[in-house]
Design brief:
The chain is built from eleven helices and twelve strands. By secondary structure, the chain is of the alpha/beta class.
Length: about 325
């Protein structure tokens, strides 16, 4: 006698009844890009339907996001002026800080996450400060902590450090606590690979390195055990969320992390993953809606509690339909 697995697939009602993984709008975090000194929204050519926004258009974007039931956004900023140390990143009147204050004033219940890094703010495009051409870990921690405190003062609900320096969670946690933000959580980019999937983001954030690459501080995509060590370190240092970035080519890592932690796990469905689907859909090669929902479901099935995705608005619309 053989097993008749098809018994439970006979109708849509049967399939819905036994479905093991379901997506919800509450799973999604929508990124937004805010650019200083921009007059009108500017579409990012490598990321169709994603825009750099001037501050004057931020509330229109947030209104649409909220209307779809999405409860969280992450803010990336592009300053007017960049310098060697990325000083605009911790300016209390910087573009990210202005955007956070504006959004929280009009949408106080929306969860606003601040990306905490220097790459969009440094003239050289690296995620930390340079010392004789090398990214210096410990000096960078001091500045990154200043950035986090400034973002928390502006009203950020969650600090999300993406800089991949060693010890950044401990440094930022200590800084936030001492500054009176003991209840501001840290969403750590715990497992961040030096991936080729980031290309379109560097168009959006204007953050490509002026020289070299980020392989001395972001992880080798071939390494699994190192990923687990990174996640363990961040949890021990006080992270409240652990992130795996990218998601699509690293679902095994996402599952590994989920099985070893009781913290919420975040998958970052990155720009290159977004761009590939958009390009294939525009050429008529795939059904975009079905592929997006299948891809996001796969991330959740692999262990993601939350999914940071440029498809958040699209996916929320699909789920409503």
């Amino acid at each position: 006698m053989f097993a008749r697995h098809r018994r439970l697939r006979q109708t849509k009602a049967f399939r819905d009844l036994v479905r093991e993984t379901s997506l919800s709008v509450n799973d999604f975090i929508q990124p937004i890009f805010v650019k200083e000194d921009l007059q009108e929204p500017k579409e990012i050519l490598s990321m169709p339907n994603v825009y750099q926004l001037p501050l004057t258009h931020v509330l229109d974007e947030v209104k649409e996001i909220v209307s779809l039931g999405i409860q969280a956004i992450i803010v990336f900023g592009i300053p007017k002026h960049k310098d060697e140390i990325g000083s605009a990143a911790w300016d209390d009147d910087g573009i990210v800080q202005q955007a956070i204050r504006l959004i929280k004033k009009h949408y106080p219940d929306l969860i606003v996450i601040a990306d905490t890094c220097l790459c969009e703010f440094t003239s050289h495009g690296h995620c930390g400060l340079l010392d004789r051409g090398h990214v210096c870990n410990d000096i960078s921690l001091e500045k990154l902590t200043q950035v986090a405190i400034s973002q928390a003062k502006a009203g950020a609900d969650i600090i999300a450090p993406s800089n991949a320096m060693d010890g950044y969670v401990m440094s930022i946690r200590k800084g936030l606590d001492e500054a009176g933000f003991a209840y501001t959580p840290i969403m750590s980019y715990s497992v961040k690979f030096a991936s080729s999937f980031y290309g379109p983001f560097r168009d959006a954030g204007e953050s490509a390195p002026a020289f070299g690459d980020r392989k001395t501080y972001q992880m080798d995509p071939a390494n699994r055990l190192e990923a687990l060590r990174e996640a363990k370190s961040d949890e021990e240092e006080g992270a409240d969320f652990l992130m795996v970035k990218p998601a699509l080519a690293f679902l095994d890592i996402l599952r590994d992390v989920k099985e070893r932690t009781h913290l919420p796990v975040v998958a970052y469905n990155v720009s290159g993953e977004y761009a590939m689907v958009k390009a294939a859909a525009q050429n008529g090669w795939i059904d975009e809606k079905l592929v997006v929902l299948e891809m996001l479901t796969g991330m959740k099935r692999a262990g993601a509690d939350l999914i940071l995705t440029y498809f958040a608005k699209d996916a929320a619309t699909y789920l409503q339909q």
